[in-house]
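Before relying on records like the one below, remember that each one covers exactly one chain. Contacts with other chains, cofactors or solvent are not represented anywhere in the record.
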Amino acid sequence: MLLRIENTPRPYAWGSTTAIAELLGTTPSGGPEAELWLGDHPGSPARIVAGDASGASDLSSMLLARGEKLPFLLKVLAAGEPLSLQAHPTIAQAREGFARDNAAGIALDAPNRNYKDELHKPELIFALSDPFIALAGFRPIAEARAVLAAAEQPALAAFIDKLVDDAALPDLVRWLIAGGPEVTALVDALVATARNLEHDPRDTPSWATVRRLAEYYPGDPGIAMSTLMHTVVLRPGEALYLPTGNIHSYQQGLAIEIMAASDNVLRGGLTPKHVDAAELMRVLDARPVAEPRIAPVEVLPGVHRFTPDVVDFALTVVEAGSAVDGITLETGGPAIVLCLDGQLTLQGELVLERGQAAYADDDALQLVGAGRAVVATGRHPQG
């Protein structure tokens, strides 16, 4: 089966007003356009616009009628403002939390509901803009301490003294999320320091993050949390893989995002939405990690695949010109293709232009043309 699909960008307040439209060659809505969902997630299933869909209007209803569901969700993400600090659960944590929320009688659409389903939500972000900026994972305490100490600000001394070693991270996170006068004073001192360091040789991407967050979330404890995290600056073609438990916040830029098909989010700040600190700490991996970049493997000349350590999804990038003479990608089942530029023909019959997308469910996908595209594939996890 081969279907042309499309969708309308989600108008979340943090979205860019132009980036998605510019990428896809569409007319901007005039409001924020944050995420374009291409999948069967019931929150915004892709519409079927061409092909044999047996009368179904969208992917969700079509696949449900067949007793099927995609294991992944492909998105175009355009952050005009920073997103919330968040982490996602493992499958075991999601199942337990979902049952607990159900037992407590919390409605699925209630703002204080933590678990919307029984799935984990690892995710991968592939940068399109230059730059794409993210907060991703805790850095070693010694690294955070060195950056803060280099500012030589007495008002930061008490916080620096708390940065004893990596084992201090869980208690630091709890302390910051809880807030209070001491945390408020720390946030104020960090923001003042960051502003004083602008254009100073001691300025770093981390201080730039503090300035950015202070603009959008003044006084939020997440500003202090950001100094314990990696500020990662991606260039086009680079990617991050964020496993379950990883704390992160996309800051600005345009990217392709692919994730397990879940809506489970535990927030830790930088948001007016519900923050359940105790539940966040249950799923959070409060250990330092290296910048969570992921490198692709070249599966064919000009064709690169990002394959994380989960079966739910992989992302294949078909660079412009690599399919001129035709290529075949082994997909193993359902796939979603988004043409980013130029033109590609799928399975010898469906032509995709810039900004157009398709669903295919053959085990192999044939592409011909000079265009550039991303291809999402994956399998359902067992257990």
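Residues 82-294 form a domain with the Jelly Rolls fold (CATH 2.60.120).
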